[in-house]
Amino acid sequence: MRIVDHRPRGSLAIAFVILSTLLVTTRARAETWQAPVGGRAIALAEGRVACSVASGDWTIEAAGAAVRPPVTEDAVGRSTELRIAPTAAACATTATTVTLVATGRWPTIDTAATTLSPDDARVELRGRGLRGVIVQWRAGDRSGEDRCAQPQSEGAVEKCALGVGRGLTADPTAVTLAWFPAGARVGADVVTFDAAARKVAREELVLRPARVVVSSLVPAGTAIDLASGGVGRIPLVHPEAVASAECGAAACEISGGAVVVHDIKSIGTALSLRLRLLPRVFLQRGDALDAAPTLSVPVLPCGMSIASGDAPRAIDDSRIVVRVDARCAGEARAMRFFAGGRAADVVAVEESGGAGFVLLRVGRVEGDELVVTATRSGADGSTIGQARARTRALAAPRAVLALASGVTLDFIPTNRTANVRFAQPAEGGRFALSPVEGVYEANEHDGATTIRGERASAGFVALRFAYRVPSLPGSLATTALATLVEAIERPLHEANIPVALGASALGPKPIVELVCSADGRAPKTIAPGDVTHIPFSARDSCRVVFHRDRLSPEDGAQYLSLDIDVARVDGAARPEAHISQSIVLRAGAEPRYAWLKGIVGAFDRAVVRISHVGDESHYVGGAELRNGAPSAQWSVVFGTGHARIYATTAIPTGLYRVSDADHSGILALNFGVVMRGTWLDDQGHEGFLGLEAGVMGVGLANDVSRSGHSLTQLATVAGIGLSVPIANRSLATETSINLHAWLEYEVSRTGDVPGNAIGFVFGPSISIGNVGTSF
């Protein structure tokens, strides 16, 4: 028969690797042997030979067939490595080792005197040779061990108390104890030998306590009340150790870790409770042990309970609310209350549904349970009621502060309200942010909590939260039962929000304006973004107005940067007019002003820029201001003319005069003064074409015509010209190159000179100067 394996080969490979790993791990796991000093030699199993031992404490005997423990007490607790092999021949190559541990000589333990005290978290041993003995304990999933360091001697007998885990069960069958000699190791891979070299099983080291002794069976101050409807509960400290209960005239049973008592009304002022304990379990009463103790539990006439739930633990000045039933509600104000054995102050009393609700100041509560008792006032002082509450550790919530815009804050704003978000307890009461007088105010509306620092406050403060129970009646629902302080402290200062500065900020009422007055008229607001023309005569009336009265105190301080640049009509900057300064603007009754300066020439152009300083540490959400773009910008040209007439010098070179034959020709050198009229653009720049008229001296280089007549003369000219500025455009020192076409009249020609006094002149020139007026 042929067998075919249909499983994937990959699965076989994985299985092989896992199996090989397990085999290697099993083989490589180290063995540990321990035996007492002075004990007999331990024989090795067949197929094993002792090769060598690392230290001289242990000795190899019988040709490697046995190994003997040390004989001196100073070897206790020391370990060494023993190399072993299948045969003596294999010793040269073997890597297999066994760890050898020397323990102390075995003690003599009186198991009949072993006592476990779970309430004291200790086990007591009696015997001889107890020094260094180790006791290991295990209960459920808990375990531990302790060592007897210094036993006490009582004659020929030693006594030693070792620690066990606190809160262990009192059921003798649920706790496992085991002992080990001094210097021993405890572990699953440890093999223990006795002095006779006999392998000792783990069960032989089990220690069964003869007695389990408890210090209490019911909590201190336990009582039952008559207002419980005829049924009461007496909690048990160790219900697992109680086999049965008897309650005298009343019926009772053990259920849910407590003794449930029925028909309480038929009992007098105290209930006689007899408890029968499990075998080997005893109640410690002085020096005596009682296996069937009888307890007297008071029966109280007033029913009381904790209405506020778990009591806050480890918090100074904590409070609780106790409910007193209708039978004793009228006496609630006159009762004296004690919490945890200390007097508790009555802060307030509310009545609801016939019951009385008493607010008690209990101070700092420690422990897992708080017992509250009530006594009659006056000389009687008898206990009339009792209630128990579990305690609960409360931690202050971690709050997150944010503006309405959603921007989170790491400080408390003093100029605007911030929302506060924090987590509520999973069960029980609720947290509410508490105000701190003179530091910050807190409000709650529609489930939302807000905070605002006092205007004059500064420094650091930790938020405070009140713990409340809204289900309590009347004013108790808003009473702080505990005050919790946040772990961090927050600074207090303004929340500075960058506001829009231009006309879009508040519609017709911007925060920053540029205002000019012209010819005594009412001030004119310059619109940002456009180029505005202002008469040159109004140059000293322009100012930047910062309207502090239009700022809200909630905006905080505005850190602004003001930049003013003035350029001449030719585009060159006037450095003396430049302004760059920082301004801190806060809400106020009066505006602030910054005047423009350095405008000295017609058609000077002023550019005013105002922007927020891009400082994220100053502004809330200021990261978007880092681009440096201005928030508002104005451009003003100080000049309103559309045409200009000005005088300039003209130095024509290479003019050509067209007239009669005797007075025509090239005029090499000329000089004169010309009046020129042209238009102006909106920047004050003159047009290239213009009408010209003036007086010229022509032919100054003794130029002559082809017929030999002199062309030197003084003439008036009129015509058109094309002018291209090459320096200082539209300024008094303007330099330009020109091309002229003029009609000329020779005023210097005498009457007896033949020819025509009128001619046509054209050609280039250079002009220097520009003196005139615009209109």
Can you characterise this structure?
The protein has 775 residues and is mostly beta strands. It is 3% helix and 47% strand. The chain has one helix and 64 strands. Strands 8, 9, 10, 13, 14, 19, 26 and 27 form an eight-stranded mixed sheet that branches. It has a seven-stranded mixed beta barrel with strand order 29-31-34-33-32-35-36. Strands 3-6-7-1-16-17 form a six-stranded mixed sheet, with no helix packed on it. A hairpin with a 2-residue loop joins strand 33 (342-352) and strand 34 (355-363). The chain is elongated.
Chart the SSEs and their pairings.
Layout lengths: L8 H20 L2 E6 L5 E2 L5 E5 L5 E3 L4 E3 L10 E7 L11 E7 L4 E2 L5 E3 L4 E7 L5 E6 L2 E6 L4 E3 L2 E7 L12 E5 L9 E4 L5 E2 L5 E2 L3 E4 L9 E2 L5 E5 L6 E5 L4 E5 L2 E5 L7 E8 L3 E5 L2 E3 L3 E7 L1 E5 L4 E3 L4 E7 L11 E4 L2 E11 L2 E9 L5 E7 L7 E11 L6 E3 L5 E2 L2 E2 L4 E4 L8 E5 L5 E6 L2 E6 L5 E3 L2 E5 L13 E4 L4 E4 L18 E5 L7 E3 L4 E4 L8 E4 L11 E10 L11 E7 L6 E4 L8 E9 L19 E7 L4 E10 L2 E4 L6 E3 L3 E9 L9 E10 L14 E15 L7 E12 L11 E17 L1
Parallel strand pairs: 1-7, 1-16, 9-19, 19-26, 20-28, 29-36, 30-36, 39-47, 50-56
Antiparallel strand pairs: 2-5, 3-6, 4-5, 6-7, 8-10, 9-10, 10-14, 11-12, 11-15, 13-14, 15-18, 16-17, 21-24, 22-25, 23-24, 25-28, 26-27, 29-31, 31-34, 32-33, 32-35, 33-34, 35-36, 37-38, 37-40, 40-43, 41-45, 42-43, 44-47, 45-46, 48-49, 48-51, 51-54, 52-53, 52-55, 55-56, 57-60, 57-64, 58-59, 58-64, ...
